TrEMBL record:
Pathway: Amino-acid biosynthesis; L-histidine biosynthesis; L-histidine from 5-phospho-alpha-D-ribose 1-diphosphate: step 8/9. Signal peptide: none annotated. It catalyses: L-histidinol phosphate + H2O = L-histidinol + phosphate. It comes from the Bacteria. Belongs to the PHP hydrolase family. HisK subfamily. It holds the Pfam family PHP. GO terms for biological process: L-histidine biosynthetic process. This is Histidinol-phosphatase.
Length: 276
């Protein structure tokens, strides 16, 4: 079994309205490419902030600008017009956990992908609101990111922890990089990750980003394997051709750290299936 659960039915850019992308034909394009690449378990996880309901949770300028679509219409579309698993990519916004929890619990998702894209107002992977303009050191930004990552896991609101070391998005050349061994930062999150049992995403999206590496890196993944958390494999595709992106590299990494099973979700119940 191969999975791709962290999939978007449209690019992040504005001008990609639901009417054009939340269609049975578009879902079928994704299903066809997934089938060609041996991916049976396919699920979609649209960004929560593209739905108006997210404005009850947070009103970051990007969210205000992006919140155009109706969340219940998206859920009905995936359930009624596609054979895809129904997921959502929901940010962890400290202080707004209860509002986000309500939004998530009111719908019958198969899985919820939890992400940190922002540290307060600053974005980790979007230069328009760049967190690195804050003047904070790499040590401060990495510490904050991994402290929050542990808190995300501890909420119990999320089934999958997305792109676990997204803070490295820009790579060593384009932004400051910490001097410490990176395991120091991973350690800040590990106790809560281990206790929560949350599934950890291995995402090939990082290979398409300036850093040019899988999320998470091998040292972090080894710590996760020692902790015993299950693994969810995804590409974070935003177009059909990105499905299963460079999965051969991900499978090599999984094999190297001794992972033989992947997490599979159904109405927020999890089971493990052998990789293959
Ligand atoms: Zn994301
Ligand atoms: Zn995503």
């Amino acid at each position: 079994m191969l999975t791709d659960y962290h999939v978007h039915l449209r690019p992040d850019e504005p001008g990609t309205p639901a009417e054009r992308h939340f269609t049975a034909e578009n879902a079928e394009r994704y299903r066809e490419v997934a089938a060609e690449r041996g991916i049976e378990e396919l699920g979609v996880a649209e960004h929560v902030y593209r739905f108006t309901a997210a404005l009850d949770v947070w009103q970051h300028p990007l969210w205000v600008q992006s919140a155009q679509d109706d969340l219940d219409r998206y859920c009905d579309f995936v359930r009624d017009e596609t054979d895809l698993k129904l997921g959502i990519e929901a940010d962890f916004v400290p202080g707004r956990e209860e509002r986000m929890r309500e939004l998530l619990e009111e719908r019958d998702f198969d899985f919820v992908v939890g992400s940190i894209h922002f540290l307060a107002e600053g974005a980790l992977d979007y230069d328009k609101y760049d967190v690195w303009n804050s003047g904070r050191s790499a040590d401060h930004i990495w510490r904050t990111y991994f402290t929050w990552l542990g808190e995300l896991a501890a909420t119990g609101m999320y089934d999958i922890l997305a792109h676990p070391d997204l803070v490295k998005h820009w790579g060593r050349e384009q932004r400051p990089w910490p001097e410490k061994d990176l395991r120091f930062y991973y350690d800040l999150a590990m106790e809560q990750i281990a206790e929560s049992g949350i599934a950890i995403e291995v995402s090939t999206a990082g290979l398409r980003k300036p850093v040019g590496e899988i999320y998470p890196d091998a040292a972090f993944l080894e710590m996760i394997v020692d902790a015993g958390n299950p693994i969810a494999l995804s590409s974070d595709a935003h177009t059909p051709d990105q499905l299963g992106y460079e999965y051969d590299k991900a499978l090599e990494l999984l094999d190297a750290v001794g992972i033989t099973e992947l997490a599979v979700f159904d109405r927020r119940a999890r089971r493990l299936e052998p990789i293959g």
